[in-house]
Specification:
about 290 residues, alpha/beta, Arc Repressor Mutant, subunit A, D-Maltodextrin-Binding Protein, domain 2
Length: about 290
């Protein structure tokens, strides 16, 4: 028989740990502040450790409280998933994934017919940004490090090539005059270092100002700007396959650089054994990058 404290006490603690206020917790749960205090006290007595540091008009979590909160978050998510599957049997075949917009549009979308052909029982929904209304089964993320508390694996590093419009090739031969026309991508509030890295590889770091030019928040915006003749860019080549094939964009140098950023597959701990997640991630790993 399991030895566990009451679910009510755990729920009260979970709410109080997020609110860091017994008063706000009582309002949120529609109970008295005294009831909240009693539940927390009973839970602390059961565990034999304090969960909160009680300051004047302020609460802080102890190390034990922080540890319990993280564990409860996973446990409550598992319980929610289990209840949802029982209430809606079709829910177990609904797969919600989070994918960066350019990767979803320019790489993943064109491969989905193969996934749907092999896994007709799975209803796939792709989101481009997090939302509190959806519990995601897995995520494909742009970054340069693994994600903590996840099964996190690198799918592929970016492979950057320098491109422009065909009619701008002659200008590209004198890139030192085009610093103001460099196009950049912003990630986490900063310009990605692709121009710095490419200019260094090309031996042009002392001739071209890599800090100049225009920055955009998405790769699709950069590609649109390129096709409109706004300048020059160093771009992940898998994202412009069609443009290169149709010669809408052309390479102005054969020099390529890899990384340091790439695309990672992140699976939350509580989702790793679910069949629909296994099917999708196994399929994803088999794709050519």
């Amino acid at each position: 028989m399991r030895s566990l404290p009451s679910l009510t006490a755990l729920r009260v603690f979970d709410t109080a740990a997020k609110q860091l206020s017994f008063t706000l917790t009582a309002k949120h749960l529609n109970v008295t502040q005294g009831a909240v205090s009693r539940q927390i006290k009973q839970l602390e007595d059961y565990l034999g450790v304090p969960l909160f540091i009680r300051l004047h008009h302020q609460l802080k979590l102890t190390d034990a409280g922080q540890q319990l909160l993280q564990s409860l978050h996973l446990s409550f998510n598992l319980m929610e998933s289990a209840i949802t599957e029982i209430r809606d049997p079709n829910q177990r075949q609904k797969l919600n994934i989070l994918v960066p917009p350019t990767l979803a549009t320019r790489w993943l979308a064109r491969r989905l017919s193969d996934f749907r052909l092999n896994y007709k029982q799975i209803e796939l929904t792709i989101y481009e940004r997090p939302t509190d209304q959806v519990i995601f089964d897995c995520e494909v993320r742009f970054g340069n490090t693994a994600k903590p508390r996840h099964l996190s694996e690198l799918l592929f590093l970016e492979e950057h090539v320098p491109v422009c419009l065909p009619e701008m090739l002659k200008r590209a031969a004198h890139l030192e005059k085009e610093s103001s026309n460099l196009l950049h991508i912003i990630h986490d509030g900063r310009r990605l270092p692709v121009w710095h890295n490419w200019l260094k590889a090309a031996g042009l770091a002392d001739q071209v100002n890599a800090e100049s030019g225009t920055a955009f928040s998405t790769l699709d915006q950069v590609i649109s700007a390129l096709k409109g003749g706004a300048g020059f860019a160093v771009i992940e080549k898998h994202m412009i396959t069609d443009e290169l094939r149709k010669k809408e964009l052309v390479r102005f140098s054969e020099i390529e650089i890899s990384g340091p950023y790439g695309y990672w597959l992140d699976i939350p701990t509580e989702k790793q054994g679910i069949s629909k997640v296994i099917y999708f991630t196994d399929w994803l790993r088999q794709q050519e990058f």
